[in-house]
Amino acid sequence: MSDELNSIILNHQVTTLLIMNESLQVKYANPAAEQLFGQSAKRIVDQPLSHLIQHASMDLALLSQPLQSGQSITDSDVTFVVDGKPLMLEVTVSPISWKRELMLLVEMRKIGQQRRLSQELNQHAQQQAAKLLVRGLAHEIKNPLGGLRGAAQLLERMLPDASLKEYTQIIIEQADRLRSLVDRLLGPQKPGEKRAENLHLILEKVRQLVELECGHSIDIERDYDPSLPEFLMDSDQIEQALLNIISNAGQILQSQENGKITVRTRTVHQTNIHGQRCKLAARIEVVDNGPGIPSELQDTLFYPMVSGREGGTGLGLSIAQNLIDQHRGKIDVDSWPGKTTFTIYLPIDTGL
Predict the structure, then answer these.
(1) Separation between Cα atoms, residue 246 and residue 240, nearest integer Å
(2) Residue 306, SS3 per DSSP
(3) The whole model's pTM is what?
(4) What is the sign, positive or negative, of the torsion defined by CA atoms of 221, 227, 228, 231?
(5) Cα dist. 119→58, 111, 115, 123, 124 in Å?
(6) By three-state DSSP, how is residue 258 classified?
(7) Rounded to the nearest 10 degrees, how much is the dihedral formed by the CA atoms of 226, 227, 229, 234?
Protein backbone atom coordinates (compact mmCIF):
# COMPACT_ATOMS: atom_id res chain seq x y z
CA MET A 1 0.00 0.00 0.00
CA SER A 2 1.43 3.41 -0.97
CA ASP A 3 2.29 6.06 1.63
CA GLU A 4 -0.21 8.40 -0.05
CA LEU A 5 -3.01 5.87 0.39
CA ASN A 6 -1.89 5.21 3.96
CA SER A 7 -2.15 8.95 4.67
CA ILE A 8 -5.67 9.13 3.24
CA ILE A 9 -6.78 6.21 5.42
CA LEU A 10 -5.13 7.60 8.58
CA ASN A 11 -6.56 11.06 8.01
CA HIS A 12 -10.09 9.68 8.10
CA GLN A 13 -9.68 7.83 11.40
CA VAL A 14 -11.61 9.32 14.33
CA THR A 15 -9.03 8.18 16.89
CA THR A 16 -5.78 10.04 17.49
CA LEU A 17 -2.97 8.60 15.37
CA LEU A 18 0.72 9.46 15.45
CA ILE A 19 3.61 7.94 13.55
CA MET A 20 6.92 8.24 15.39
CA ASN A 21 10.49 7.10 14.91
CA GLU A 22 12.61 5.20 17.44
CA SER A 23 13.42 8.47 19.25
CA LEU A 24 9.66 9.09 19.68
CA GLN A 25 9.82 12.04 17.32
CA VAL A 26 6.51 12.60 15.54
CA LYS A 27 6.60 12.14 11.77
CA TYR A 28 2.86 12.20 11.09
CA ALA A 29 -0.25 13.37 12.96
CA ASN A 30 -3.84 12.94 11.78
CA PRO A 31 -6.64 15.54 12.28
CA ALA A 32 -7.82 13.81 15.47
CA ALA A 33 -4.29 14.29 16.88
CA GLU A 34 -4.47 17.99 16.02
CA GLN A 35 -7.66 18.23 18.05
CA LEU A 36 -6.29 16.29 21.02
CA PHE A 37 -3.05 18.28 21.25
CA GLY A 38 -4.62 21.60 20.27
CA GLN A 39 -2.00 22.21 17.57
CA SER A 40 -1.77 21.90 13.81
CA ALA A 41 -0.05 18.90 12.26
CA LYS A 42 2.70 21.21 10.97
CA ARG A 43 3.56 22.19 14.54
CA ILE A 44 3.29 18.63 15.88
CA VAL A 45 5.46 16.96 13.23
CA ASP A 46 9.18 16.74 14.12
CA GLN A 47 8.40 17.38 17.79
CA PRO A 48 9.38 14.74 20.37
CA LEU A 49 6.29 13.34 22.07
CA SER A 50 7.66 14.53 25.42
CA HIS A 51 7.37 18.14 24.18
CA LEU A 52 3.66 17.73 23.42
CA ILE A 53 2.68 16.63 26.92
CA GLN A 54 3.50 18.01 30.35
CA HIS A 55 3.28 14.67 32.15
CA ALA A 56 2.61 11.01 31.43
CA SER A 57 1.56 8.30 33.86
CA MET A 58 3.55 5.73 31.87
CA ASP A 59 7.25 5.51 31.02
CA LEU A 60 7.39 6.89 27.48
CA ALA A 61 10.47 4.79 26.74
CA LEU A 62 8.20 1.72 26.72
CA LEU A 63 6.55 3.02 23.54
CA SER A 64 9.58 2.04 21.45
CA GLN A 65 9.40 -1.65 22.47
CA PRO A 66 7.40 -2.78 19.39
CA LEU A 67 10.38 -1.88 17.17
CA GLN A 68 12.46 -4.54 18.93
CA SER A 69 9.76 -7.14 19.62
CA GLY A 70 7.68 -6.71 16.47
CA GLN A 71 4.59 -7.02 18.69
CA SER A 72 1.96 -4.39 19.51
CA ILE A 73 1.53 -3.20 23.09
CA THR A 74 -1.57 -1.68 24.72
CA ASP A 75 -2.09 0.21 27.97
CA SER A 76 -5.77 0.80 28.71
CA ASP A 77 -5.24 3.26 31.57
CA VAL A 78 -2.87 6.07 30.64
CA THR A 79 -3.05 9.68 31.73
CA PHE A 80 -1.41 12.35 29.56
CA VAL A 81 -1.43 15.97 30.68
CA VAL A 82 -1.93 18.17 27.63
CA ASP A 83 -2.15 21.95 27.96
CA GLY A 84 -2.57 21.59 31.72
CA LYS A 85 -5.49 19.17 31.46
CA PRO A 86 -5.30 15.44 32.30
CA LEU A 87 -6.61 13.11 29.60
CA MET A 88 -7.46 9.46 30.34
CA LEU A 89 -6.49 7.37 27.32
CA GLU A 90 -6.12 3.87 25.97
CA VAL A 91 -2.82 3.75 24.07
CA THR A 92 -1.85 1.11 21.51
CA VAL A 93 1.57 1.09 19.81
CA SER A 94 2.35 -1.07 16.76
CA PRO A 95 5.28 -1.37 14.34
CA ILE A 96 4.53 -0.01 10.86
CA SER A 97 6.41 0.50 7.62
CA TRP A 98 6.31 4.19 6.72
CA LYS A 99 8.26 5.71 3.84
CA ARG A 100 10.36 2.55 3.71
CA GLU A 101 11.36 2.86 7.35
CA LEU A 102 10.22 0.91 10.40
CA MET A 103 8.19 3.30 12.51
CA LEU A 104 5.77 3.29 15.44
CA LEU A 105 2.03 3.76 14.93
CA VAL A 106 0.54 5.18 18.14
CA GLU A 107 -3.23 5.08 18.53
CA MET A 108 -4.88 6.97 21.39
CA ARG A 109 -8.52 6.58 22.40
CA LYS A 110 -10.17 8.69 25.07
CA ILE A 111 -11.65 6.57 27.82
CA GLY A 112 -15.41 7.06 27.80
CA GLN A 113 -17.34 8.90 30.50
CA GLN A 114 -19.04 5.66 31.57
CA ARG A 115 -15.71 3.94 32.12
CA ARG A 116 -14.35 6.93 34.04
CA LEU A 117 -17.46 6.87 36.24
CA SER A 118 -17.06 3.13 36.79
CA GLN A 119 -13.44 3.61 37.89
CA GLU A 120 -14.50 6.41 40.23
CA LEU A 121 -17.23 4.28 41.82
CA ASN A 122 -14.87 1.33 42.21
CA GLN A 123 -12.24 3.50 43.87
CA HIS A 124 -14.85 5.02 46.17
CA ALA A 125 -16.07 1.55 47.17
CA GLN A 126 -12.50 0.48 47.98
CA GLN A 127 -11.96 3.59 50.09
CA GLN A 128 -15.18 2.97 52.00
CA ALA A 129 -14.18 -0.66 52.63
CA ALA A 130 -10.79 0.46 53.95
CA LYS A 131 -12.48 2.99 56.24
CA LEU A 132 -14.84 0.34 57.62
CA LEU A 133 -11.90 -1.95 58.33
CA VAL A 134 -9.96 0.78 60.13
CA ARG A 135 -13.05 1.86 62.11
CA GLY A 136 -13.61 -1.74 63.22
CA LEU A 137 -10.00 -2.04 64.38
CA ALA A 138 -10.21 1.35 66.13
CA HIS A 139 -13.26 0.23 68.10
CA GLU A 140 -11.47 -2.98 69.11
CA ILE A 141 -8.43 -0.99 70.29
CA LYS A 142 -10.45 1.61 72.21
CA ASN A 143 -11.82 -0.71 74.94
CA PRO A 144 -8.50 -2.33 75.97
CA LEU A 145 -6.90 1.13 76.05
CA GLY A 146 -9.43 2.25 78.68
CA GLY A 147 -8.65 -0.80 80.80
CA LEU A 148 -4.91 -0.26 80.40
CA ARG A 149 -5.15 3.36 81.52
CA GLY A 150 -7.39 2.51 84.48
CA ALA A 151 -5.04 -0.23 85.66
CA ALA A 152 -2.07 2.16 85.44
CA GLN A 153 -3.94 4.71 87.57
CA LEU A 154 -4.77 2.08 90.23
CA LEU A 155 -1.18 0.85 90.23
CA GLU A 156 0.08 4.41 90.66
CA ARG A 157 -1.94 4.83 93.87
CA MET A 158 -0.52 1.62 95.34
CA LEU A 159 3.14 2.30 94.59
CA PRO A 160 5.23 2.71 97.80
CA ASP A 161 7.90 4.82 96.12
CA ALA A 162 6.81 8.09 94.45
CA SER A 163 9.75 7.89 92.04
CA LEU A 164 8.16 4.81 90.45
CA LYS A 165 5.19 6.90 89.36
CA GLU A 166 7.29 8.12 86.44
CA TYR A 167 6.66 4.76 84.74
CA THR A 168 2.92 4.69 85.34
CA GLN A 169 2.72 8.24 83.97
CA ILE A 170 4.40 7.05 80.77
CA ILE A 171 1.75 4.30 80.45
CA ILE A 172 -1.08 6.80 81.04
CA GLU A 173 0.36 9.39 78.60
CA GLN A 174 0.88 6.82 75.83
CA ALA A 175 -2.62 5.38 76.39
CA ASP A 176 -4.04 8.92 76.06
CA ARG A 177 -2.03 9.48 72.90
CA LEU A 178 -3.37 6.29 71.36
CA ARG A 179 -6.91 7.17 72.48
CA SER A 180 -6.60 10.52 70.72
CA LEU A 181 -5.38 8.76 67.55
CA VAL A 182 -8.30 6.31 67.68
CA ASP A 183 -10.79 9.17 68.14
CA ARG A 184 -9.37 10.86 65.05
CA LEU A 185 -9.62 7.61 63.09
CA LEU A 186 -13.27 7.20 64.06
CA GLY A 187 -14.13 10.85 63.41
CA PRO A 188 -17.67 12.25 63.30
CA GLN A 189 -20.26 9.83 61.93
CA LYS A 190 -22.72 12.41 60.63
CA PRO A 191 -22.93 16.16 60.08
CA GLY A 192 -24.26 18.34 62.85
CA GLU A 193 -27.01 20.87 62.35
CA LYS A 194 -26.91 22.32 58.83
CA ARG A 195 -27.43 26.01 58.17
CA ALA A 196 -27.24 28.16 55.06
CA GLU A 197 -23.64 29.39 55.03
CA ASN A 198 -21.36 31.44 52.78
CA LEU A 199 -18.63 29.14 51.53
CA HIS A 200 -16.29 32.04 50.81
CA LEU A 201 -16.37 33.22 54.44
CA ILE A 202 -15.30 29.72 55.47
CA LEU A 203 -12.51 29.71 52.88
CA GLU A 204 -11.30 33.08 54.17
CA LYS A 205 -11.05 31.66 57.71
CA VAL A 206 -9.08 28.72 56.37
CA ARG A 207 -6.78 30.99 54.34
CA GLN A 208 -5.95 33.07 57.41
CA LEU A 209 -5.21 29.95 59.48
CA VAL A 210 -2.92 28.50 56.81
CA GLU A 211 -1.09 31.82 56.40
CA LEU A 212 -0.51 31.96 60.16
CA GLU A 213 0.76 28.39 60.11
CA CYS A 214 3.00 28.71 57.04
CA GLY A 215 3.99 32.35 57.28
CA HIS A 216 4.39 34.55 54.21
CA SER A 217 6.64 32.13 52.33
CA ILE A 218 3.58 30.81 50.47
CA ASP A 219 1.33 32.86 48.20
CA ILE A 220 -2.38 31.98 48.46
CA GLU A 221 -4.32 33.29 45.46
CA ARG A 222 -8.13 33.49 45.53
CA ASP A 223 -10.38 33.10 42.51
CA TYR A 224 -13.92 33.11 43.88
CA ASP A 225 -17.16 32.89 41.93
CA PRO A 226 -19.36 35.71 43.32
CA SER A 227 -22.51 34.02 41.99
CA LEU A 228 -22.08 31.03 44.34
CA PRO A 229 -25.14 31.07 46.63
CA GLU A 230 -25.29 30.29 50.33
CA PHE A 231 -26.27 26.67 50.90
CA LEU A 232 -26.91 24.21 53.72
CA MET A 233 -23.85 22.73 55.46
CA ASP A 234 -22.23 22.05 58.80
CA SER A 235 -19.79 24.96 58.61
CA ASP A 236 -17.42 23.53 61.25
CA GLN A 237 -17.04 20.27 59.38
CA ILE A 238 -16.59 21.93 55.98
CA GLU A 239 -14.02 24.28 57.51
CA GLN A 240 -12.13 21.31 58.97
CA ALA A 241 -12.17 19.43 55.65
CA LEU A 242 -10.91 22.43 53.67
CA LEU A 243 -8.31 23.24 56.33
CA ASN A 244 -6.92 19.71 56.16
CA ILE A 245 -6.54 19.90 52.37
CA ILE A 246 -5.14 23.45 52.11
CA SER A 247 -2.91 23.09 55.18
CA ASN A 248 -1.50 19.86 53.75
CA ALA A 249 -0.58 21.70 50.54
CA GLY A 250 0.96 24.54 52.57
CA GLN A 251 3.15 22.20 54.60
CA ILE A 252 4.47 20.53 51.45
CA LEU A 253 5.24 23.89 49.81
CA GLN A 254 7.21 25.20 52.79
CA SER A 255 10.22 23.22 51.61
CA GLN A 256 10.38 24.98 48.22
CA GLU A 257 10.75 28.52 46.91
CA ASN A 258 7.90 30.42 45.24
CA GLY A 259 5.25 28.12 46.68
CA LYS A 260 1.77 29.04 45.48
CA ILE A 261 -1.73 27.79 46.30
CA THR A 262 -4.73 28.83 44.21
CA VAL A 263 -8.18 28.43 45.74
CA ARG A 264 -10.89 28.60 43.08
CA THR A 265 -14.68 28.29 43.41
CA ARG A 266 -17.26 27.76 40.69
CA THR A 267 -20.91 26.81 40.35
CA VAL A 268 -21.41 23.69 38.22
CA HIS A 269 -24.59 22.26 36.73
CA GLN A 270 -25.56 18.64 36.05
CA THR A 271 -22.52 16.88 37.50
CA ASN A 272 -22.08 13.30 38.72
CA ILE A 273 -21.22 12.72 42.38
CA HIS A 274 -20.59 9.04 43.16
CA GLY A 275 -22.87 7.99 40.32
CA GLN A 276 -25.73 10.31 41.27
CA ARG A 277 -26.74 13.19 39.03
CA CYS A 278 -26.58 16.51 40.88
CA LYS A 279 -28.43 19.48 39.36
CA LEU A 280 -26.33 22.15 41.07
CA ALA A 281 -23.05 21.91 42.99
CA ALA A 282 -20.22 24.02 44.32
CA ARG A 283 -16.78 23.14 42.98
CA ILE A 284 -13.76 24.12 45.05
CA GLU A 285 -10.31 23.66 43.50
CA VAL A 286 -7.14 23.76 45.60
CA VAL A 287 -4.17 23.95 43.22
CA ASP A 288 -0.53 23.97 44.32
CA ASN A 289 2.75 24.07 42.40
CA GLY A 290 4.50 21.53 44.60
CA PRO A 291 6.38 18.36 43.65
CA GLY A 292 3.21 16.34 43.05
CA ILE A 293 1.93 13.18 44.68
CA PRO A 294 3.91 10.00 43.95
CA SER A 295 1.98 7.83 41.49
CA GLU A 296 2.13 4.82 43.83
CA LEU A 297 0.21 6.80 46.49
CA GLN A 298 -2.49 8.38 44.32
CA ASP A 299 -4.94 5.44 44.39
CA THR A 300 -4.73 5.08 48.20
CA LEU A 301 -4.25 8.73 49.12
CA PHE A 302 -7.51 8.99 51.07
CA TYR A 303 -6.99 5.75 52.98
CA PRO A 304 -6.35 6.21 56.72
CA MET A 305 -2.67 6.12 57.73
CA VAL A 306 -1.42 6.77 54.17
CA SER A 307 0.77 9.86 53.84
CA GLY A 308 3.12 11.20 51.19
CA ARG A 309 4.67 13.69 53.63
CA GLU A 310 7.48 12.84 56.01
CA GLY A 311 6.14 12.93 59.55
CA GLY A 312 2.51 12.95 58.37
CA THR A 313 -0.09 10.81 60.13
CA GLY A 314 -2.09 10.07 56.99
CA LEU A 315 -5.31 11.13 58.73
CA GLY A 316 -5.87 14.65 57.39
CA LEU A 317 -7.10 13.69 53.91
CA SER A 318 -9.00 10.66 55.19
CA ILE A 319 -10.89 12.84 57.67
CA ALA A 320 -11.49 15.48 54.98
CA GLN A 321 -13.03 12.90 52.67
CA ASN A 322 -15.18 11.52 55.48
CA LEU A 323 -16.56 15.00 56.22
CA ILE A 324 -17.20 15.73 52.53
CA ASP A 325 -18.88 12.33 52.10
CA GLN A 326 -21.25 13.19 54.94
CA HIS A 327 -22.33 16.23 52.91
CA ARG A 328 -22.96 13.91 49.89
CA GLY A 329 -19.95 15.42 48.14
CA LYS A 330 -16.73 14.03 46.72
CA ILE A 331 -13.04 14.86 46.37
CA ASP A 332 -11.05 14.25 43.17
CA VAL A 333 -7.30 14.65 42.78
CA ASP A 334 -5.07 15.11 39.73
CA SER A 335 -1.35 15.37 40.31
CA TRP A 336 1.92 15.48 38.43
CA PRO A 337 5.25 17.22 39.15
CA GLY A 338 4.65 20.95 39.42
CA LYS A 339 0.88 20.80 39.83
CA THR A 340 -1.55 19.09 42.17
CA THR A 341 -5.28 19.83 42.10
CA PHE A 342 -7.77 18.73 44.74
CA THR A 343 -11.33 19.29 43.51
CA ILE A 344 -14.17 19.21 46.03
CA TYR A 345 -17.78 18.96 44.88
CA LEU A 346 -20.60 19.85 47.30
CA PRO A 347 -24.27 19.58 46.28
CA ILE A 348 -26.04 22.90 46.66
CA ASP A 349 -29.20 22.75 48.73
CA THR A 350 -30.24 26.24 49.71
CA GLY A 351 -33.15 25.01 51.84
CA LEU A 352 -35.01 28.17 50.87
Answers:
(1) 10
(2) coil
(3) 0.69
(4) positive
(5) 18, 11, 6, 6, 9
(6) coil
(7) -40
